[in-house]
Design a protein that fits this description.
The chain is α/β, with parallel strands linked by helices and 234 residues long. The chain is built from eight helices and six strands, in the order αβαβαβαααβαβαβ. 44% of the residues lie in helices and 9% in strands.
Length: 234
Amino acid sequence: MTVGAEFPVVKKRELFARLANGHSEGIAVLTPNRRLAQTLAREFDERQITSGLTAWETADILPFGAFIERLYEDALYSDIAAQLPLLLTGAQEQVLWEMAIRASEWGEALLAVPRAAADCRKAWRLVHEWRIAGAVMGNPGSFPGNEDARAFAEWAKDYTRRCDQESNTDEARLPDIVAPLLQEAALRKPKRVVAYAFDVVPPRMLDFLAACAKQGIEVRHCAPEEKVSKATRI
């Protein structure tokens, strides 16, 4: 599923021109990962230098996950903080997954529980990104598969229970928690959100962008400029 099919496209040249106007434009550029965010920010800075500028406002370019966490932190330090679950760190997630695995029927048979827990964390992010029914809810009855799939579903169910007991959440579920909060004044929402260089976008992110649009935030898609090249075989 592509962003371009859901939201209008903005050219990269136009995006940089609007970013050059500073924070008054209210643009947040979201990228798939931190490395691309840093690369795009460097390109923008080089463009400003080429234009002869010696100082300019830093462009708001960051990974999608970092953008979600920033909104969550805004809510966490507001009057609605008491309504929010606490975000687990990566180490805390790891411990809870290990506890869920050790407490299961497979706990004593596994030789490397920490490695299995790390794999569960990756799988947990994937099932939330792609809205895989059953696996997300930890319901093995609606998540058919082999013994590995059944084990993960059981562990996910126990992991969810442990999180709920302490009113905790994790990075995988954070976008779904933040989306309903976009209507709150406490969140510093941009006027415009530009998804940059997303070829295929998981349903979870598309749902969040749709929630942004519903709150009056302008959502656009931008792709890297095409480069013409010629390959020669010698």
